[in-house]
Design goal:
- The protein has 112 residues and is α+β, with helices and mostly antiparallel strands.
- It has a domain of 78 residues.
- Helices cover 43% and strands 31% of the residues.
- The protein has a five-stranded mixed sheet with strand order 1-2-5-4-3, covered by helices on one side.
- The longest helix has 42 residues.
- It is elongated, with a radius of gyration of 22 Å.
């Protein structure tokens, strides 16, 4: 095998993988920056954060917040019902809400 061709191919593969690594780092930095901005905005507005989920493969990263009547004021007409489910521990229907801010899903649950 020609070592010059082999070395050039190896170097080319390294550059491709280095470019992929750089793109992945930029992508995760953007996700984390948007998550931080959203969490800071929610906290500044008095909303309690329950969880933040940045797992890959989600349609949008998700922040779960504590229910508050102020959420509907803060998020105005952007909040939409995301369904409902029966909670056997509470013995009641729970309504799921979602809104998108900072390219993140903000979700919460309210009792019926």
């Amino acid at each position: 095998m020609n070592t010059a061709v082999s070395s050039a191919r190896h170097h080319s593969e390294w550059r491709v993988s280095e470019a992929a690594r750089s793109a992945a780092i930029l992508d995760i930095d953007a996700h984390i920056d948007n998550l931080k901005a959203c969490v800071h905005w929610l906290i500044a507005n008095g909303i309690g954060i329950i969880a933040a989920d940045l797992r890959r493969g989600r349609f949008k990263p998700r922040i779960t917040v504590a229910a508050s009547p102020y959420l509907h004021v803060l998020l105005k007409d952007d909040a939409s019902g995301a369904g409902q489910h029966w909670d056997p521990l509470l013995g009641r229907i729970v309504y799921d809400w979602v809104v998108v801010r900072y390219q993140r899903e903000i979700r919460w649950e309210e009792l019926s």
